[in-house]
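Q: What structure does this chain adopt?
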Amino acid sequence: MWVKQRTIYKICLPIFLLWTVFSSAFAQEKLDLTHQKTFLLKDLQAFVLFNHPIVKQAALLSREAQARVFQSLGKFDPALMASFGRKTFGGTDYYNHWDSELKVPLWLAGADLNVGYDRHVGVYNNPETRTSSTGLSGVGLTIPLGQGLFIDARRNTLRQAKIMVGYADAEKVAQINGVWFDVQKDYWNWYYAFQQSRFTHEGVELAQKRFQAIRAQVMIGDKPPIDSVEAAITLQDRKIQFQEATVKLINSRLLLSNHLWSSNAQPQELPAEAVPEDIAEAEMALEKLRVDTLLQQATETHPEVLKIKSQTAKLDIEQKYRLEMLKPKLNIKGAFLAGRRDFSDVPNDYDFRLANYKVGIDFSFPLFLREERGKLREVKIQQAEMAYGLQQTTREIQTGVITAFTELKAVQAQVNLLSKNVENQRTLVKAEVQKFELGESNLFLINTRETKLMDMQVKRAELISSFQKVMADLYYRAGKQKQY
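A:
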């Protein structure tokens, strides 16, 4: 009798100690689900689009393009020029020169308005430029009749700068879409890591309860001691899985926190109580997604398409300018003159009138035009490159949208099928537990079916995460952002 009691004591004592160790460790790793708050993806979207540094950096592209437009407008700024020179030697006033001019560029016909005042006096002065002591005033125009009549360098620069504002806007959208796509992938990786941690934690709880129940049955002799060993091994294995899932969850939270910034550009951390939103299967329906409309919008408004169209429009302006450069330079300039510095007194014969003027013509023309013809040829080659690039880019965008949508439907079908399997497996687990309670099954079968259920639940969470990432990829390939 004493030997039998001692044998039972030797068996139960290790089991009791093992249970104590597991219970204390599990209490420290227990997942807190009481104070968690859902961090919705739409809240994250607003958070990122307002505060992310790359998004703010992308917004500078439009401002930079506007600055270039403002810079090119400087070609039309009025310019005031003046010069003075005087020479006196041996008591003789050789010359006293004063030249001043206000030049106002005009948009129409590339002309320039010139308003000037000159005063050239002294003993030794060129008679051609000599003026009276009151000086000589003039108001005139310089008009290109050949090269530069329809477009010139300054108008070409301004028009191209305005077109590149659209290019900058498209590049800004492309960068923001890229940031948001990365954010969504990290969010749904966090979702998967959280669900994996949750399901493995539930498995640990089930194993813990079963270990306690079997331990009690072993103590009273209803179960063989080997069952408690198997229950302890299962508990230990699931605790290891839970620890691995916890590490993945922590890392996924850190990766998602990389995208969180405050309004004053300070890095933020994902709150400890934050959990991802839970996606229902009804929210994964594709009936509301019009892929044909999305495909049409992608071929018309995709940032890469808009950038190529902007570059093509820029080359069209450059082509017009290079064609204009093939014309000869023929500039006519003229001005009405007046021999006075102010007009406060009575008019006289030296005031502005048709008889007081000066005119001139400038003409030049390179005989072979090899430089300008070469530049025009280069522009046409670049236009052909843009046309081919637009064709290829449009096709790649269309293919990307279609392949993403095809993959999306396949993943949705897998989710639906796996959801049914999860329900069936859950039914099998319940039935196996009932058989075990009636003594018609064993612990190994229960653990096997529970492990299978846990794996299927984790796999389903992984597929849901994949579905959402493929959905994000679909909109990214279409050059748009899905609104949540």
